[in-house]
Amino acid sequence: MTAARVARWAEEHPLSPPHVDCATAVMLKILDGKCKMKPTEKLVMALLYEQVKGRPGEKLGADIHRLIADSRKRLDEDMQFLLYEKRVLAETMISRPVMKAFKAMIREQGLLEPELDWEETEA
After folding, report:
1. N or C: the chain end with fewer CB closer than 10 Å?
2. Phi and psi for 37 in degrees, rounded to 5?
3. What is the Cα–Cα distance from 119 to 73, expressed in whole angstroms?
4. What does DSSP assign to residue 94?
């Protein structure tokens, strides 16, 4: 899926603030190397994050977006540790039902191919 298609999808399916948080948490997981999604899905999720990072989240804010931007310039050991800490914190702030609903929605709405739940593949 191209950046233009992800942008169009994001425009046609505006994310709620909790779902913006979910997309941000997935981006943190991709950057800290713990995401076990397929490479193509990681790319789509990174493109989605780029589309929604300026939208308000419910629990994750500008500090996390600055960290993500900084990590793209400098991904050393210290940065990876900080990403890990922030990702774990973000995942504790977002309820499992909200994350599961987000995952189901992006598959049902055609952003990602329908398949097993990420949690089943990441166990």
Report:
1. C
2. -70, 160
3. 29
4. S
Token pair, residue 12, equals 């046609």
**Residue whose entry in the numeric block shows the structure tokens 């948490």:** 25
- Residue 16 has which token pair? 């709620």
* Token duo for residue 74: 């400098």
The pLDDT confidence band at residue 84, using thresholds 50, 70 and 90, is very high
Question: Collapsing DSSP states into helix, strand and coil, what is residue 2?
Answer: coil
Distance CA 59, CA 65 (A): 12
Q: Among all chains, which residue has been given the structure tokens 């739940």?
A: 117
Alpha carbon distance 12, 87 (integer Å) = 28
The identity of residue 80, as a single letter, is Q
Give the CA distances from residue 12 to residues 4, 15, 51, 57, 70, in Å, rounded to whole numbers and listed in that order. 12, 9, 12, 18, 29
**Residue spans of alpha helices (H) in the chain:** 3-12, 17-31, 39-52, 62-73, 77-93, 96-108, 118-122
**Is this prediction's pTM over 0.90?**
no
The pair of structure tokens assigned to 90 is: 């973000």
Tokens representing 39 are 């490479």
